[in-house]
Specification:
alpha+beta; four-stranded antiparallel β-sheet; Thiol Ester Dehydrase, Chain A; 120 residues; 28% helix; 4 strands
Length: 120
């Protein structure tokens, strides 16, 4: 069939999210070293076209909003000039024990600055 299984789209989202943080905030490892993880609480994907095994997928990613202990990130996935999917994920900031933890103020401010509109 030659089509990438739809579940792999979530992997593309995760990779894009990690790169976003590394290039525009701090590496995700900084959060881990500081006892913070971003648990995925919601995933939305609209599949517009199939991705084939040999396709190169480009992901455009941006932060929609950042709150005290959560954030929402949007994505568009392209193969060449074809938009193949649009997606969004929501995340809760948690500690090592899985309890909700506020995003540190400095990081929260930096993340909010990346959102195209004012965060809630």
């Amino acid at each position: 069939m030659g089509v990438v299984h739809h579940s792999n789209t979530v992997r593309y989202l995760e990779l894009a999210r990690v790169v976003l943080l590394e290039e525009h905030d701090v590496p995700y490892t900084w959060y881990i070293e500081n006892g913070i993880h971003f648990a995925v609480t919601r995933v939305e994907v609209d599949y517009l076209e199939s991705i084939r095994f040999d396709d190169t997928v480009d992901v455009v990613v941006w932060i929609d909003w950042v709150r005290g202990a959560s954030m929402r990130i949007h994505y568009t996935l392209h193969v060449g000039n074809r938009r193949v999917a649009v997606a969004a994920t929501e995340h809760a900031s948690i500690d090592e024990e899985g309890r909700v933890r506020r995003i540190p103020k400095e990081r929260r401010s930096a993340l909010r600055a990346l959102a195209p509109a004012a965060s809630a």
